[in-house]
Amino acid sequence: MESNAIEAFDQYAEDYDKWFESLPGKALFETEVEAVRMLMQGLEHPFLEVGIGTGRFAKELGIDYGVDPSDEMIKIAINRGIKAEKAEGENLPFKDEFFGGVFILFTLCFTANPERMLSEAKRVLKKDGRLIVGIINKASPWGQLYLKKKGEGHPIYKHAKFYSVDEVVEMIKSLGMTVEAYSSALCQNPSERLYKEPIYDGVRDGAGFVCIRAGQTT
Question: How far apart are alpha carbons 18 and 1 in whole angstroms?
Fold first, then answer.
Protein backbone atom coordinates (compact mmCIF):
# COMPACT_ATOMS: atom_id res chain seq x y z
CA MET A 1 0.00 0.00 0.00
CA GLU A 2 1.28 3.45 -0.86
CA SER A 3 2.40 5.67 2.01
CA ASN A 4 -0.25 8.35 1.43
CA ALA A 5 -2.99 5.71 1.65
CA ILE A 6 -1.52 4.40 4.92
CA GLU A 7 -1.43 7.95 6.28
CA ALA A 8 -5.12 8.35 5.43
CA PHE A 9 -6.05 5.17 7.30
CA ASP A 10 -3.94 6.28 10.28
CA GLN A 11 -5.69 9.65 10.33
CA TYR A 12 -9.24 8.33 10.01
CA ALA A 13 -8.96 5.02 11.91
CA GLU A 14 -11.26 6.02 14.79
CA ASP A 15 -13.84 7.67 12.52
CA TYR A 16 -13.82 4.62 10.23
CA ASP A 17 -14.37 2.28 13.16
CA LYS A 18 -17.13 4.35 14.77
CA TRP A 19 -19.10 4.49 11.51
CA PHE A 20 -19.95 0.80 11.97
CA GLU A 21 -21.84 1.76 15.13
CA SER A 22 -24.24 3.99 13.15
CA LEU A 23 -27.55 2.56 11.91
CA PRO A 24 -26.41 2.22 8.27
CA GLY A 25 -23.02 0.96 9.42
CA LYS A 26 -24.59 -1.79 11.52
CA ALA A 27 -26.86 -2.85 8.66
CA LEU A 28 -23.98 -3.14 6.20
CA PHE A 29 -21.70 -4.84 8.72
CA GLU A 30 -24.23 -7.54 9.63
CA THR A 31 -25.03 -8.20 5.98
CA GLU A 32 -21.40 -8.40 4.90
CA VAL A 33 -20.42 -10.63 7.82
CA GLU A 34 -23.12 -13.12 6.84
CA ALA A 35 -21.95 -13.11 3.22
CA VAL A 36 -18.43 -14.04 4.35
CA ARG A 37 -19.69 -16.61 6.85
CA MET A 38 -21.65 -18.40 4.12
CA LEU A 39 -18.35 -19.43 2.52
CA MET A 40 -16.52 -20.46 5.71
CA GLN A 41 -18.01 -23.93 6.05
CA GLY A 42 -15.31 -26.57 6.43
CA LEU A 43 -12.44 -24.14 7.00
CA GLU A 44 -10.01 -25.02 9.77
CA HIS A 45 -8.03 -22.65 11.97
CA PRO A 46 -5.75 -20.80 12.10
CA PHE A 47 -7.23 -17.96 10.03
CA LEU A 48 -5.53 -14.81 8.74
CA GLU A 49 -7.10 -11.55 7.58
CA VAL A 50 -4.97 -9.47 5.22
CA GLY A 51 -5.76 -5.79 5.74
CA ILE A 52 -7.46 -6.40 9.06
CA GLY A 53 -8.20 -2.73 9.67
CA THR A 54 -9.71 -2.21 13.11
CA GLY A 55 -10.52 -5.90 13.53
CA ARG A 56 -14.31 -5.67 13.54
CA PHE A 57 -14.77 -8.35 10.88
CA ALA A 58 -12.02 -10.55 12.33
CA LYS A 59 -13.58 -10.42 15.79
CA GLU A 60 -17.04 -11.31 14.52
CA LEU A 61 -15.79 -14.08 12.21
CA GLY A 62 -13.38 -15.69 14.68
CA ILE A 63 -10.26 -14.85 12.70
CA ASP A 64 -7.10 -15.44 14.73
CA TYR A 65 -4.41 -13.35 13.04
CA GLY A 66 -4.28 -10.13 11.08
CA VAL A 67 -1.89 -7.80 9.32
CA ASP A 68 -2.28 -4.18 8.31
CA PRO A 69 0.16 -1.40 7.37
CA SER A 70 -1.68 1.21 9.48
CA ASP A 71 -0.39 1.66 13.05
CA GLU A 72 -3.65 3.22 14.24
CA MET A 73 -5.81 0.49 12.74
CA ILE A 74 -3.62 -2.20 14.28
CA LYS A 75 -3.92 -0.63 17.75
CA ILE A 76 -7.70 -0.92 17.62
CA ALA A 77 -7.56 -4.49 16.28
CA ILE A 78 -5.20 -5.56 19.07
CA ASN A 79 -7.58 -4.06 21.64
CA ARG A 80 -10.24 -6.37 20.17
CA GLY A 81 -8.08 -9.36 21.02
CA ILE A 82 -6.76 -10.10 17.53
CA LYS A 83 -3.15 -11.24 17.07
CA ALA A 84 -2.44 -8.36 14.74
CA GLU A 85 0.84 -6.94 13.52
CA LYS A 86 2.02 -4.26 11.17
CA ALA A 87 2.81 -5.74 7.77
CA GLU A 88 1.86 -5.41 4.12
CA GLY A 89 -0.24 -8.02 2.40
CA GLU A 90 2.28 -8.11 -0.43
CA ASN A 91 4.96 -9.40 1.97
CA LEU A 92 3.39 -11.53 4.68
CA PRO A 93 5.57 -12.36 7.74
CA PHE A 94 4.43 -15.99 7.92
CA LYS A 95 5.87 -19.30 6.82
CA ASP A 96 4.53 -21.27 3.86
CA GLU A 97 1.35 -23.32 4.26
CA PHE A 98 0.50 -22.07 7.76
CA PHE A 99 -3.17 -21.03 7.56
CA GLY A 100 -6.35 -22.97 6.94
CA GLY A 101 -8.12 -19.84 5.77
CA VAL A 102 -6.90 -16.48 4.43
CA PHE A 103 -9.37 -13.59 4.13
CA ILE A 104 -8.88 -10.49 1.97
CA LEU A 105 -11.95 -8.34 2.66
CA PHE A 106 -12.26 -4.85 1.14
CA THR A 107 -8.46 -4.74 0.88
CA LEU A 108 -7.58 -5.74 -2.67
CA CYS A 109 -8.66 -2.34 -3.97
CA PHE A 110 -6.08 -0.56 -1.81
CA THR A 111 -2.96 -2.31 -3.07
CA ALA A 112 -0.97 -1.26 -6.11
CA ASN A 113 -0.12 -4.92 -6.71
CA PRO A 114 -3.22 -7.10 -6.19
CA GLU A 115 -1.60 -10.06 -7.95
CA ARG A 116 1.26 -10.01 -5.44
CA MET A 117 -1.16 -9.82 -2.50
CA LEU A 118 -3.10 -12.82 -3.82
CA SER A 119 0.12 -14.73 -4.47
CA GLU A 120 1.25 -14.18 -0.88
CA ALA A 121 -2.13 -15.35 0.38
CA LYS A 122 -1.74 -18.54 -1.65
CA ARG A 123 1.79 -19.06 -0.31
CA VAL A 124 0.73 -19.06 3.34
CA LEU A 125 -2.32 -21.28 2.74
CA LYS A 126 -2.21 -24.94 3.63
CA LYS A 127 -2.70 -27.28 0.70
CA ASP A 128 -6.26 -27.92 1.86
CA GLY A 129 -6.82 -24.30 2.91
CA ARG A 130 -9.16 -21.78 1.33
CA LEU A 131 -8.88 -18.16 0.24
CA ILE A 132 -11.90 -15.87 0.65
CA VAL A 133 -11.82 -12.53 -1.15
CA GLY A 134 -14.57 -9.97 -0.54
CA ILE A 135 -14.88 -7.00 -2.89
CA ILE A 136 -17.02 -3.98 -3.55
CA ASN A 137 -18.19 -4.96 -7.01
CA LYS A 138 -17.32 -2.23 -9.50
CA ALA A 139 -20.17 -3.36 -11.74
CA SER A 140 -22.90 -2.44 -9.26
CA PRO A 141 -24.64 0.69 -7.93
CA TRP A 142 -22.41 0.44 -4.84
CA GLY A 143 -19.31 0.24 -6.99
CA GLN A 144 -20.42 3.29 -8.92
CA LEU A 145 -21.02 5.17 -5.66
CA TYR A 146 -17.47 4.47 -4.47
CA LEU A 147 -16.05 5.39 -7.86
CA LYS A 148 -17.91 8.70 -7.53
CA LYS A 149 -16.44 9.21 -4.06
CA LYS A 150 -12.99 8.46 -5.48
CA GLY A 151 -13.49 11.03 -8.24
CA GLU A 152 -14.56 13.62 -5.68
CA GLY A 153 -11.35 13.13 -3.72
CA HIS A 154 -12.69 11.19 -0.72
CA PRO A 155 -9.78 11.01 1.79
CA ILE A 156 -9.75 7.19 1.77
CA TYR A 157 -11.45 6.06 -1.43
CA LYS A 158 -9.36 8.34 -3.63
CA HIS A 159 -6.58 5.79 -3.05
CA ALA A 160 -8.68 2.81 -4.18
CA LYS A 161 -8.94 0.95 -7.47
CA PHE A 162 -12.16 -1.02 -7.68
CA TYR A 163 -12.61 -4.28 -9.58
CA SER A 164 -15.40 -6.33 -11.08
CA VAL A 165 -15.98 -9.94 -10.02
CA ASP A 166 -14.64 -11.19 -13.34
CA GLU A 167 -11.41 -9.21 -12.93
CA VAL A 168 -10.72 -10.65 -9.49
CA VAL A 169 -11.60 -14.18 -10.58
CA GLU A 170 -9.14 -13.87 -13.44
CA MET A 171 -6.39 -12.81 -11.03
CA ILE A 172 -7.13 -15.76 -8.74
CA LYS A 173 -7.19 -18.27 -11.59
CA SER A 174 -3.91 -16.90 -12.96
CA LEU A 175 -2.26 -18.19 -9.75
CA GLY A 176 -3.43 -21.71 -10.51
CA MET A 177 -6.18 -21.62 -7.89
CA THR A 178 -9.70 -22.98 -8.39
CA VAL A 179 -12.74 -20.79 -7.69
CA GLU A 180 -15.27 -22.92 -5.82
CA ALA A 181 -18.11 -20.70 -4.66
CA TYR A 182 -19.53 -17.19 -4.38
CA SER A 183 -21.87 -15.28 -2.10
CA SER A 184 -23.56 -11.96 -2.80
CA ALA A 185 -25.00 -9.16 -0.68
CA LEU A 186 -25.98 -5.48 -0.83
CA CYS A 187 -28.51 -5.82 -3.61
CA GLN A 188 -30.36 -2.80 -2.22
CA ASN A 189 -29.40 0.52 -3.72
CA PRO A 190 -27.20 2.86 -1.66
CA SER A 191 -29.21 5.14 0.63
CA GLU A 192 -29.28 6.55 4.14
CA ARG A 193 -31.98 4.04 5.13
CA LEU A 194 -30.07 0.81 4.80
CA TYR A 195 -31.31 -2.46 6.25
CA LYS A 196 -29.95 -5.95 6.82
CA GLU A 197 -30.90 -8.00 3.79
CA PRO A 198 -30.74 -11.66 2.71
CA ILE A 199 -27.49 -13.22 1.53
CA TYR A 200 -27.45 -14.95 -1.84
CA ASP A 201 -25.57 -18.02 -2.97
CA GLY A 202 -23.64 -17.35 -6.17
CA VAL A 203 -23.11 -14.07 -7.99
CA ARG A 204 -26.27 -11.98 -8.09
CA ASP A 205 -26.64 -9.21 -10.65
CA GLY A 206 -26.16 -5.79 -9.13
CA ALA A 207 -24.78 -7.07 -5.82
CA GLY A 208 -22.52 -4.48 -4.23
CA PHE A 209 -20.55 -6.96 -2.12
CA VAL A 210 -19.39 -10.27 -3.57
CA CYS A 211 -17.28 -12.93 -1.84
CA ILE A 212 -15.20 -15.43 -3.77
CA ARG A 213 -13.92 -18.70 -2.30
CA ALA A 214 -10.93 -20.40 -3.90
CA GLY A 215 -8.80 -23.45 -3.15
CA GLN A 216 -5.43 -24.76 -4.10
CA THR A 217 -5.39 -26.72 -7.35
CA THR A 218 -4.52 -30.35 -6.68
Answer: 23
